[in-house]
User: What shape does this take?
Amino acid sequence: MPPPVAPLMKTTLIAVSGMSPAILTETVWALAHETPLVVPDEVVVITTSRGVCDIEELLLTPLDVWGGETVWSCLRRDIFALAKLPQKSARLQLATRVIELPDAATGVKRKASDLRSREDNDSAADFIVQVLAPYADAEDNRVIASIAGGRKTMGALLYAAMSLLGKEGDRVTHVLVSEPFENCRSFFYPGQPVQALEARPYGQSPTSIQAADAAIELADIPFVPLRNKFEELNEPRRTFAGLVEAYSKAERQVLKHAPQVSLDIAKGILKVEGRSLKLTGRDLLIIAFLHDHAIKGGRHFRNKDEAADDLASFMDSWKKRHPFHQATTRLSGGMATVDDIPKALNSLRTQLRNKGLSGAVPWLAPERSRIGFDIANGSG
Assistant: This one.
């Protein structure tokens, strides 16, 4: 029977945009010039009603000087040619999400034309979370969040939302464009068909420039994916403030130090902060391996496959040291393998929570960030 085929990873570019939609074309162009190149499947733009008008006017309206084509259609054609994709590829699908604000007078939400009050920003934060959550939660989707456009508060809110919802492999980016192109409203990307442009830097005379001379750089901004630490929350993710409060509460419950851990192999008992957890079969073998690895000062494994050689060596040693242990004699189908690691860690997480030790989960069995124990005391 052939092995199951892994789902294809999709990429979604999520951006905030105000009155400068060129940050979308510039970011897409920059991604396509990375190694390896990246062509998002979907570009989701969180904006205002004024911002969506600018997108319609500048990116989605056919222009005579562009041969009757839109900026977006030209960009897609050029990116697909660069990536050697068919011109009718379904990638680079542009979708706009206009922030909605509650209206106390009418009871009908209205499209935000701007964000000017604290209440507006609170509503925008919730809106960003609601847009981002399904993309961030999907295991087969990578999110690239661009915070280059829109009001500064919109970029800050998207960055904060990525810290709350983003996962390993997601990115937060900012696009940097060389002068004087950032002051040229008719510049969208270096390979655009209209090359002769005119820049109007503030307080200076107009300058003739060529689009191909622009330098675009994509800066990755580090962020901490808090869901790695608090995966056990399983939050429904409805509001920005609710997420912040949930994580803050969980942070207060997480152990402030690596837990005291010991393992009684003969009895199959793992003690964490003085509380006993019963282990059997392959769960015991995997936990014994990770415990032994931590005591010896071994580094964390980035994934299960990286642990393969060390685990195989530990299993050989275990059979020699514990030939009559029940975990050795009663297992059918051989000793533990790397495929047993996720199962054992999931079982460990369940036992820790049932014993009131949820605070030890980030130290011993985080969901995504790495495989390995952080322990204060490993004797036993």
In short: Confidence is low (pLDDT under 50) at residues 1-7. The radius of gyration is 26 Å.
